[in-house]
Amino acid sequence: MKAFMDADFLLKTETAKRLFHDYAKEMPIIDYHNHLPPDEIANNRQFESLTAIWLKGDHYKWRAMRANGVAEQFVTGDADDLTKFKHWAATVPYTMRNPLYHWTHMELQTPFGVKQLLDASNADWVYNHCNEQLPHWRTQTLLKHFKVTTLCTTDDPCDNLEHHTAIRQSGFDIHVLPTFRPDKAIAVEDAQAFNAYADKLGMVANMPTGNYHQFMEALRSRHDYFHEAGGRLSDHGISTFYNTAFTATELETIYTKLRAGKEISTAEALQFKTGTLHLICEWNHERGWVQQFHVGAIRNNNSRLVQQIGADAGVDSIGDWQVAIAMSGFLDGLDKKNKLTKTVVYNLNPSYNEVFATMAGNFQDGTVPGKIQFGSGWWFLDQKDGMEKQMNTLSNMGLLSRFVGMLTDSRSFLSWSRHEYFRRILCNLLGDDVENGELPGDINWLGKMVQDICYNNARSYFGF
Question: CA 372, 29, 398: angle at the middle one, nearest 5?
Answer without folding.
Answer: 25
